[in-house]
Protein backbone atom coordinates (compact mmCIF):
# COMPACT_ATOMS: atom_id res chain seq x y z
CA UNK A 1 0.00 0.00 0.00
CA UNK A 2 1.28 3.44 -0.84
CA UNK A 3 1.44 6.30 1.61
CA UNK A 4 -1.55 8.04 0.03
CA UNK A 5 -3.53 4.84 0.36
CA UNK A 6 -2.46 4.69 3.96
CA UNK A 7 -3.73 8.18 4.55
CA UNK A 8 -6.99 7.19 2.93
CA UNK A 9 -7.28 4.22 5.28
CA UNK A 10 -6.71 6.52 8.22
CA UNK A 11 -9.56 8.71 7.09
CA UNK A 12 -11.83 5.73 6.55
CA UNK A 13 -10.83 3.91 9.71
CA UNK A 14 -13.83 2.03 10.99
CA UNK A 15 -14.58 0.56 14.35
CA UNK A 16 -13.40 -2.95 15.00
CA UNK A 17 -15.84 -5.69 15.87
CA UNK A 18 -16.43 -5.62 19.64
CA UNK A 19 -13.95 -7.77 21.49
CA UNK A 20 -14.19 -9.31 24.91
CA UNK A 21 -12.56 -6.85 27.25
CA UNK A 22 -10.08 -8.39 29.59
CA UNK A 23 -8.93 -7.14 32.94
CA UNK A 24 -5.56 -5.46 32.97
CA UNK A 25 -3.07 -4.99 35.70
CA UNK A 26 -1.45 -1.64 36.18
CA UNK A 27 2.21 -2.51 35.92
CA UNK A 28 3.99 0.71 36.73
CA UNK A 29 2.99 2.42 39.94
CA UNK A 30 5.01 5.47 38.89
CA UNK A 31 2.32 6.19 36.30
CA UNK A 32 1.04 8.98 38.44
CA UNK A 33 -1.14 10.79 35.96
CA UNK A 34 -3.13 7.81 34.83
CA UNK A 35 -6.37 9.02 36.33
CA UNK A 36 -5.93 12.57 35.26
CA UNK A 37 -7.09 11.73 31.75
CA UNK A 38 -10.37 10.54 33.19
CA UNK A 39 -11.05 13.33 35.62
CA UNK A 40 -9.88 16.38 33.68
CA UNK A 41 -12.09 17.78 30.93
CA UNK A 42 -10.09 17.75 27.69
CA UNK A 43 -8.76 21.19 26.78
CA UNK A 44 -9.37 22.55 23.33
CA UNK A 45 -6.94 21.41 20.67
CA UNK A 46 -4.57 23.83 19.07
CA UNK A 47 -3.74 21.74 16.09
CA UNK A 48 -5.20 19.82 13.21
CA UNK A 49 -4.25 16.56 11.58
CA UNK A 50 -1.41 18.06 9.66
CA UNK A 51 1.24 17.10 12.16
CA UNK A 52 0.12 13.55 12.46
CA UNK A 53 0.17 12.96 8.73
CA UNK A 54 3.51 14.65 8.47
CA UNK A 55 4.71 12.42 11.29
CA UNK A 56 3.52 9.28 9.61
CA UNK A 57 5.03 10.54 6.42
CA UNK A 58 8.33 10.83 8.13
CA UNK A 59 8.14 7.24 9.33
CA UNK A 60 7.50 6.08 5.83
CA UNK A 61 10.34 8.28 4.58
CA UNK A 62 12.57 6.74 7.15
CA UNK A 63 11.61 3.23 6.18
CA UNK A 64 11.94 3.88 2.49
CA UNK A 65 15.08 5.86 2.91
CA UNK A 66 16.90 3.05 4.60
CA UNK A 67 16.53 0.81 1.61
CA UNK A 68 17.87 3.36 -0.79
CA UNK A 69 20.51 4.57 1.58
CA UNK A 70 23.11 2.09 0.48
CA UNK A 71 23.11 3.78 -2.89
CA UNK A 72 23.46 7.15 -1.11
CA UNK A 73 22.55 10.43 -2.79
CA UNK A 74 25.28 12.54 -4.34
CA UNK A 75 24.71 15.45 -2.02
CA UNK A 76 25.05 13.29 1.06
CA UNK A 77 28.22 11.76 -0.36
CA UNK A 78 29.60 15.20 -1.08
CA UNK A 79 28.75 16.31 2.42
CA UNK A 80 30.51 13.26 3.79
CA UNK A 81 33.71 13.82 1.92
CA UNK A 82 33.76 17.57 2.33
CA UNK A 83 33.29 17.49 6.04
CA UNK A 84 35.38 15.94 8.71
CA UNK A 85 34.06 13.13 10.84
CA UNK A 86 32.46 13.94 14.15
CA UNK A 87 35.53 12.81 16.00
CA UNK A 88 37.82 14.89 13.84
CA UNK A 89 35.65 17.96 14.19
CA UNK A 90 35.59 17.46 17.95
CA UNK A 91 39.36 17.18 17.99
CA UNK A 92 39.76 20.43 16.09
CA UNK A 93 37.24 22.22 18.29
CA UNK A 94 38.39 20.95 21.64
CA UNK A 95 41.74 19.29 20.99
CA UNK A 96 40.13 16.16 22.34
CA UNK A 97 39.34 12.81 20.74
CA UNK A 98 36.49 11.16 22.65
CA UNK A 99 36.68 7.42 23.30
CA UNK A 100 33.82 4.97 23.72
CA UNK A 101 34.18 5.48 27.48
CA UNK A 102 33.60 9.21 27.01
CA UNK A 103 30.36 8.49 25.16
CA UNK A 104 29.32 6.15 27.97
CA UNK A 105 29.83 9.08 30.37
CA UNK A 106 27.44 11.15 28.24
CA UNK A 107 24.98 8.24 28.21
CA UNK A 108 25.13 8.06 32.01
CA UNK A 109 24.52 11.78 32.33
CA UNK A 110 21.48 11.49 30.05
CA UNK A 111 20.21 8.59 32.17
CA UNK A 112 20.50 10.81 35.23
CA UNK A 113 18.59 13.62 33.49
CA UNK A 114 15.79 11.19 32.51
CA UNK A 115 15.17 10.47 36.18
CA UNK A 116 15.08 14.14 37.21
CA UNK A 117 11.53 14.14 35.85
CA UNK A 118 10.55 12.36 39.07
CA UNK A 119 11.75 15.30 41.19
CA UNK A 120 10.04 17.77 38.89
CA UNK A 121 6.71 15.93 38.90
CA UNK A 122 6.88 15.80 35.10
CA UNK A 123 4.35 13.59 33.32
CA UNK A 124 4.78 9.97 34.36
CA UNK A 125 8.16 10.26 36.08
CA UNK A 126 10.66 10.14 33.19
CA UNK A 127 11.82 12.51 30.49
CA UNK A 128 12.59 9.40 28.40
CA UNK A 129 9.51 9.56 26.14
CA UNK A 130 9.97 13.17 25.10
CA UNK A 131 13.70 12.61 24.56
CA UNK A 132 12.98 9.59 22.34
CA UNK A 133 10.52 11.76 20.41
CA UNK A 134 13.26 14.35 19.88
CA UNK A 135 15.61 11.67 18.55
CA UNK A 136 12.92 10.39 16.19
CA UNK A 137 11.89 13.82 14.92
CA UNK A 138 15.48 14.88 14.26
CA UNK A 139 16.10 11.66 12.29
CA UNK A 140 12.75 11.25 10.53
CA UNK A 141 13.22 14.38 8.40
CA UNK A 142 15.59 12.51 6.10
CA UNK A 143 14.60 12.86 2.47
CA UNK A 144 16.09 10.29 0.15
CA UNK A 145 15.43 12.39 -2.96
CA UNK A 146 17.68 15.22 -1.89
CA UNK A 147 19.83 13.42 0.66
CA UNK A 148 18.98 16.17 3.14
CA UNK A 149 17.63 16.06 6.66
CA UNK A 150 18.17 13.36 9.24
CA UNK A 151 20.13 13.59 12.44
CA UNK A 152 23.44 14.61 10.89
CA UNK A 153 23.22 18.37 11.21
CA UNK A 154 20.71 18.55 14.08
CA UNK A 155 18.92 21.34 12.27
CA UNK A 156 15.98 21.34 14.65
CA UNK A 157 18.10 23.78 16.67
CA UNK A 158 17.19 26.42 14.10
CA UNK A 159 14.00 28.26 13.23
CA UNK A 160 11.77 27.64 11.44
CA UNK A 161 12.35 23.88 11.93
CA UNK A 162 12.34 24.25 15.71
CA UNK A 163 8.89 25.85 15.45
CA UNK A 164 7.33 23.35 13.03
CA UNK A 165 3.98 22.21 14.43
CA UNK A 166 5.14 18.59 14.50
CA UNK A 167 7.95 19.62 16.85
CA UNK A 168 5.70 21.28 19.43
CA UNK A 169 6.87 20.45 22.92
CA UNK A 170 10.31 19.27 21.86
CA UNK A 171 11.85 22.41 23.30
CA UNK A 172 11.52 20.56 26.61
CA UNK A 173 13.77 17.76 25.34
CA UNK A 174 16.20 20.12 23.60
CA UNK A 175 16.51 22.12 26.83
CA UNK A 176 17.31 18.97 28.81
CA UNK A 177 19.89 17.88 26.27
CA UNK A 178 21.46 21.34 26.43
CA UNK A 179 22.32 20.68 30.07
CA UNK A 180 24.19 17.56 28.99
CA UNK A 181 25.91 19.44 26.17
CA UNK A 182 27.26 21.97 28.64
CA UNK A 183 29.02 19.21 30.53
CA UNK A 184 30.26 17.50 27.35
CA UNK A 185 30.74 20.35 24.86
CA UNK A 186 32.70 18.14 22.45
CA UNK A 187 29.69 16.03 21.44
CA UNK A 188 27.71 17.07 18.34
CA UNK A 189 24.02 17.76 18.78
CA UNK A 190 23.04 14.98 16.36
CA UNK A 191 25.10 12.47 18.34
CA UNK A 192 23.74 13.83 21.60
CA UNK A 193 20.08 13.73 20.59
CA UNK A 194 20.26 10.25 19.06
CA UNK A 195 22.26 8.97 22.04
CA UNK A 196 19.42 10.44 24.11
CA UNK A 197 17.00 8.23 22.21
CA UNK A 198 19.22 5.21 22.79
CA UNK A 199 19.48 5.93 26.53
CA UNK A 200 15.73 6.53 26.77
CA UNK A 201 14.86 3.16 25.22
CA UNK A 202 17.54 1.21 27.06
CA UNK A 203 16.95 2.82 30.47
CA UNK A 204 13.18 2.27 30.19
CA UNK A 205 13.76 -1.52 29.95
CA UNK A 206 13.77 -1.62 26.16
CA UNK A 207 16.11 -3.49 23.84
CA UNK A 208 19.68 -2.46 23.13
CA UNK A 209 19.88 0.07 20.30
CA UNK A 210 23.15 -0.27 18.36
CA UNK A 211 24.58 3.25 17.96
CA UNK A 212 27.80 4.94 16.93
CA UNK A 213 28.93 8.57 16.91
CA UNK A 214 29.96 10.67 13.93
CA UNK A 215 27.22 13.21 13.25
CA UNK A 216 28.34 16.79 12.85
CA UNK A 217 26.67 20.10 13.63
CA UNK A 218 25.27 21.92 10.63
CA UNK A 219 23.89 25.36 9.91
CA UNK A 220 20.50 27.02 9.76
CA UNK A 221 20.61 26.88 5.96
CA UNK A 222 20.46 23.09 6.21
CA UNK A 223 17.20 23.16 8.21
CA UNK A 224 14.47 21.07 6.62
CA UNK A 225 11.14 22.35 5.29
CA UNK A 226 7.91 21.68 7.14
CA UNK A 227 5.64 18.72 6.34
CA UNK A 228 8.08 16.41 4.62
CA UNK A 229 6.05 13.68 3.00
CA UNK A 230 7.33 10.53 1.40
CA UNK A 231 7.07 9.56 -2.20
CA UNK A 232 4.06 7.31 -1.95
CA UNK A 233 5.00 5.28 -4.98
CA UNK A 234 8.13 4.09 -3.21
CA UNK A 235 6.16 2.09 -0.67
CA UNK A 236 6.99 -1.60 -0.76
CA UNK A 237 5.81 -4.62 1.13
CA UNK A 238 9.17 -5.34 2.70
CA UNK A 239 9.20 -1.93 4.40
CA UNK A 240 6.09 -2.53 6.37
CA UNK A 241 7.44 -4.39 9.34
CA UNK A 242 9.94 -1.58 9.88
CA UNK A 243 7.23 1.08 9.87
CA UNK A 244 5.01 -0.97 12.16
CA UNK A 245 7.88 -1.72 14.54
CA UNK A 246 8.75 1.98 14.79
CA UNK A 247 5.15 2.79 15.65
CA UNK A 248 5.65 0.67 18.76
CA UNK A 249 7.50 3.72 20.15
CA UNK A 250 4.03 4.70 21.29
CA UNK A 251 4.36 2.19 24.08
CA UNK A 252 6.00 5.19 25.71
CA UNK A 253 4.80 8.59 26.77
CA UNK A 254 1.61 10.44 26.13
CA UNK A 255 -0.01 13.10 23.99
CA UNK A 256 -0.31 16.61 25.40
CA UNK A 257 -3.20 18.83 24.34
CA UNK A 258 -0.97 21.90 24.54
CA UNK A 259 1.56 20.30 22.18
CA UNK A 260 -0.19 18.22 19.52
CA UNK A 261 -3.82 18.79 20.45
CA UNK A 262 -4.22 15.09 21.28
CA UNK A 263 -4.46 13.97 24.87
CA UNK A 264 -3.52 10.92 26.91
CA UNK A 265 -1.22 7.89 27.06
CA UNK A 266 -1.29 4.82 24.86
CA UNK A 267 -0.56 2.28 27.60
CA UNK A 268 -0.80 1.82 31.35
CA UNK A 269 2.99 1.76 31.64
CA UNK A 270 4.20 4.77 29.64
CA UNK A 271 7.73 4.80 31.03
CA UNK A 272 8.50 1.15 30.30
CA UNK A 273 9.17 -0.22 26.83
CA UNK A 274 6.76 -3.11 26.21
CA UNK A 275 4.69 -4.49 23.35
CA UNK A 276 1.56 -3.30 25.18
CA UNK A 277 0.84 -0.73 22.48
CA UNK A 278 0.21 -3.60 20.05
CA UNK A 279 -1.55 -5.80 22.60
CA UNK A 280 -3.94 -3.02 23.55
CA UNK A 281 -4.65 -2.22 19.92
CA UNK A 282 -6.06 -5.72 19.48
CA UNK A 283 -7.34 -6.56 22.97
CA UNK A 284 -9.36 -3.45 23.67
CA UNK A 285 -12.37 -2.03 21.92
CA UNK A 286 -11.53 1.40 20.53
CA UNK A 287 -14.15 4.06 20.04
CA UNK A 288 -13.90 7.64 18.85
CA UNK A 289 -13.51 10.00 21.76
CA UNK A 290 -16.35 12.50 22.08
CA UNK A 291 -14.69 15.80 22.70
CA UNK A 292 -13.85 19.13 21.17
CA UNK A 293 -10.35 18.03 20.27
CA UNK A 294 -8.92 16.32 17.18
CA UNK A 295 -10.21 12.89 16.22
CA UNK A 296 -8.66 10.28 18.47
CA UNK A 297 -9.76 6.94 19.85
CA UNK A 298 -10.22 5.86 23.45
CA UNK A 299 -10.54 2.41 24.99
CA UNK A 300 -14.16 1.63 25.68
CA UNK A 301 -13.47 0.01 29.04
CA UNK A 302 -11.52 2.63 30.98
CA UNK A 303 -11.67 5.61 28.59
CA UNK A 304 -8.24 6.55 29.87
CA UNK A 305 -6.03 5.29 27.04
CA UNK A 306 -5.81 6.72 23.56
CA UNK A 307 -4.86 5.80 20.02
CA UNK A 308 -4.16 8.18 17.16
CA UNK A 309 -5.91 7.46 13.87
CA UNK A 310 -2.51 6.48 12.48
CA UNK A 311 -2.02 3.98 15.30
CA UNK A 312 -5.43 2.49 14.73
CA UNK A 313 -4.82 2.00 11.03
CA UNK A 314 -2.25 -0.64 11.97
CA UNK A 315 -5.20 -2.88 12.82
CA UNK A 316 -7.20 -1.95 9.73
CA UNK A 317 -4.74 -2.33 6.90
CA UNK A 318 -4.06 -6.00 6.18
CA UNK A 319 -0.38 -5.72 5.50
CA UNK A 320 0.24 -3.62 8.61
CA UNK A 321 -2.02 -5.81 10.72
CA UNK A 322 0.05 -8.89 10.06
CA UNK A 323 3.09 -7.34 11.71
CA UNK A 324 1.18 -5.51 14.44
CA UNK A 325 -0.43 -8.80 15.45
CA UNK A 326 2.92 -10.58 15.46
CA UNK A 327 4.35 -7.88 17.74
CA UNK A 328 1.30 -8.14 20.01
CA UNK A 329 1.94 -11.86 20.38
CA UNK A 330 5.70 -11.79 20.73
CA UNK A 331 7.50 -9.07 22.67
CA UNK A 332 10.93 -10.51 21.81
CA UNK A 333 10.16 -10.20 18.13
CA UNK A 334 9.01 -6.60 18.64
CA UNK A 335 12.17 -5.78 20.61
CA UNK A 336 14.36 -7.27 17.91
CA UNK A 337 12.68 -5.40 15.05
CA UNK A 338 12.28 -2.16 17.03
CA UNK A 339 15.98 -2.19 17.90
CA UNK A 340 17.03 -2.67 14.27
CA UNK A 341 14.57 -0.09 12.94
CA UNK A 342 15.47 2.59 15.48
CA UNK A 343 19.17 2.02 14.98
CA UNK A 344 18.80 2.50 11.22
CA UNK A 345 16.45 5.46 11.67
CA UNK A 346 19.05 7.30 13.76
CA UNK A 347 21.66 6.82 11.03
CA UNK A 348 19.57 7.99 8.07
CA UNK A 349 21.40 10.61 6.06
CA UNK A 350 24.66 10.34 7.98
CA UNK A 351 27.44 9.64 5.49
CA UNK A 352 29.07 6.35 6.45
CA UNK A 353 32.54 7.88 6.31
CA UNK A 354 31.66 10.14 9.22
CA UNK A 355 31.10 7.31 11.67
CA UNK A 356 33.99 6.68 14.01
CA UNK A 357 33.59 2.91 13.86
CA UNK A 358 32.61 0.51 11.12
CA UNK A 359 30.02 -1.19 13.31
CA UNK A 360 27.59 0.40 15.76
CA UNK A 361 28.32 -0.03 19.45
CA UNK A 362 26.13 -1.72 22.04
CA UNK A 363 26.30 0.53 25.07
CA UNK A 364 25.72 -0.87 28.57
CA UNK A 365 22.81 0.37 30.66
CA UNK A 366 23.55 2.13 33.92
CA UNK A 367 22.54 -1.02 35.85
CA UNK A 368 24.81 -3.21 33.76
CA UNK A 369 27.73 -0.92 34.47
CA UNK A 370 27.17 -1.39 38.22
CA UNK A 371 27.22 -5.18 38.13
C1 LIG B 1 3.62 6.88 12.65
C2 LIG B 1 3.97 8.12 12.74
C3 LIG B 1 3.87 8.87 14.02
C4 LIG B 1 2.93 9.79 14.33
C5 LIG B 1 1.79 10.26 13.47
C6 LIG B 1 3.21 10.22 15.66
C7 LIG B 1 2.48 11.16 16.35
C8 LIG B 1 2.69 11.52 17.66
C9 LIG B 1 1.92 12.49 18.39
C10 LIG B 1 0.75 13.30 17.83
C11 LIG B 1 2.42 12.55 19.64
C12 LIG B 1 1.95 13.42 20.80
C13 LIG B 1 2.90 14.59 21.04
C14 LIG B 1 2.47 15.37 22.27
O1 LIG B 1 1.33 15.85 22.27
O2 LIG B 1 3.27 15.50 23.21
C15 LIG B 1 3.50 11.61 19.72
C16 LIG B 1 4.24 11.35 20.85
C17 LIG B 1 5.25 10.44 20.92
N1 LIG B 1 5.80 9.75 19.87
FE1 LIG B 1 5.03 9.60 18.02
N2 LIG B 1 4.31 9.56 16.13
C18 LIG B 1 4.75 8.73 15.16
C19 LIG B 1 5.85 7.91 15.20
C20 LIG B 1 6.68 7.76 16.29
C21 LIG B 1 7.90 6.98 16.30
C22 LIG B 1 8.49 6.28 15.10
C23 LIG B 1 8.40 7.05 17.56
C24 LIG B 1 9.65 6.44 18.13
C25 LIG B 1 10.27 5.39 17.63
C26 LIG B 1 7.50 7.87 18.33
C27 LIG B 1 7.64 8.14 19.65
C28 LIG B 1 6.82 8.97 20.36
C29 LIG B 1 6.91 9.15 21.80
C30 LIG B 1 7.88 8.44 22.74
C31 LIG B 1 5.92 10.08 22.14
C32 LIG B 1 5.58 10.58 23.55
C33 LIG B 1 6.27 11.89 23.82
C34 LIG B 1 5.98 12.40 25.21
O3 LIG B 1 5.53 11.66 26.07
O4 LIG B 1 6.27 13.58 25.43
N3 LIG B 1 6.48 8.29 17.52
N4 LIG B 1 3.64 11.00 18.50
UniProtKB/TrEMBL annotation:
The places in or outside the cell where this protein is found are: Mitochondrion intermembrane space; Mitochondrion matrix
- Source domain of life: Eukaryota
Q: Which UniProt keywords apply?
A: Heme, Iron, Membrane, Metal-binding, Mitochondrion, Oxidoreductase, Peroxidase, Transit peptide, Transmembrane, Transmembrane helix
* Transmembrane annotation, as ranges: 51-69
- Could you state a single Gene Ontology molecular function term? heme binding
Answer whether the UniProt record assigns the keyword Heme to this protein: yes
Q: What are the GO cellular component annotations?
A: mitochondrial intermembrane space; mitochondrial matrix
Q: EC number(s) for this protein?
A: 1.11.1.-
GO annotation terms (biological process):
cellular response to oxidative stress; hydrogen peroxide catabolic process; response to reactive oxygen species
Enumerate the Gene3D superfamilies for this protein.
Answer: 1.10.520.10, Peroxidase, domain 2 (1.10.420.10)
The residues covered by the Plant heme peroxidase family profile domain are: 138-371
Record's catalysed reaction(s): 2 Fe(II)-[cytochrome c] + H2O2 + 2 H(+) = 2 Fe(III)-[cytochrome c] + 2 H2O
Q: Which Pfam family, any one, appears in the UniProt record?
A: peroxidase
Q: Which family does it belong to?
A: Belongs to the peroxidase family. Cytochrome c peroxidase subfamily.
> Main role?
Destroys radicals which are normally produced within the cells and which are toxic to biological systems.
Q: What is this protein called?
A: Peroxidase
Q: Which organism is it from?
A: Hermanssonia centrifuga
Question: What lineage is on file?
Answer: Eukaryota, Fungi, Dikarya, Basidiomycota, Agaricomycotina
